[in-house]
Amino acid sequence: MAEFSGVRANLYKESLREFPHARDEDIEVMKKYLAPKDNEVVLEIGAGSGFFSGILSDMVKQLTVSDPSNEQLEEVKDLNKDNIKLVEAGADTLNLEKETADAIWSFGAMHHCFNKTKAFQNFARILKRDGRLVIADVWHGSKLAQHFDDKVAKFCATGHEVAFWTDEFAESLCFLAGLETPKIHDLNIQWKFKTKAEIGTFLYKIHAMTKTTPQECLKGAEEILGIEKKDEMYCLNWPMKVMISKKK
Fold first, then answer.
1. How many CB atoms lie within 10 A of CB 229?
2. How far is residue 193's CA from residue 188's CA, in Å, rounded to a whole number?
3. Burial of 25 (0-12, 13-18, 19+ CB in 10 A)
4. How many CB atoms within 10 Å of residue 232?
């Protein structure tokens, strides 16, 4: 995926290095809803530069990390984890063996996949019987979708043409792929920073909003998403949903 190479990939990696604890609540979402076990084989979809991969690999027997960007996967390779297998492919082009994964995990990536029907066919093939699918992402009509469509799409270096979720479409995809009706939960995530200015810098870098300034990134996020101050931290609202399904 060309959009996650070059300047966008580099700025994304910079954002995570500079603010390693901003997204701690995302990790807690993974632990709660995926609930990985030490005897499991897990497939991570759209792993990017491995924000979850290092932590997840320590919790499972084997982790297959997939992403369409080789440049992003290089960062995962540098983790030097013996139980990580790298696959350069998108969700709709995966060609892994049948019934090899106990669980599939994805966070904030599947809205970039336009052929979700094919992706779910792949998921159903790769999952073992009773294997689970856990996808956290952006839902249509949410404040986060508004932020992406109104701000990120205008100012991102590569644009941001995507397909957000609805409950009904998630249910249809599971039905068509032979998966159980998904359970869908709201995620009231907050990304946390020491100063307001850090929020602007983080958003500027993580979304490569090089056609504007960090100050404008902050302004747009505060207007649409909202920022709260709690325990001396500035908390940016990041409303997502998570869907959990199983292979029948």
1. 9
2. 16
3. middle
4. 6
Provide the 3-class DSSP secondary structure of residue 150.
helix
Do 45 and 63 contact (CB within 8 A), yes or no?
Answer: no
Looking at residue 111, its pLDDT comes to: 97
d(CA 23, CA 192) in angstroms, rounded, equals: 7
Judge whether 99 and 248 are in contact, CB under 8 Å: no
CB of 74 closer than 8 Å to CB of 53? no
CATH superfamily of 2-189+239-246: Vaccinia Virus protein VP39 (3.40.50.150)
Residues of the chain with pLDDT under 50: 1-2
Contact assessment for residue 132 and residue 103, using Cβ atoms and an 8 Å cutoff: yes
pLDDT score recorded for residue 2: 43
To the question of pTM greater than 0.85 for the whole model, the response is: yes
Q: Are 2 and 197 in contact (CB under 8 A)?
A: no
| Model pLDDT for residues 228-238, shown as the tens digit of each residue | 999 999 999 99
- Which residues are bridge partners to 185 per DSSP? 242
Domain ranges of the chain: 2-189+239-246
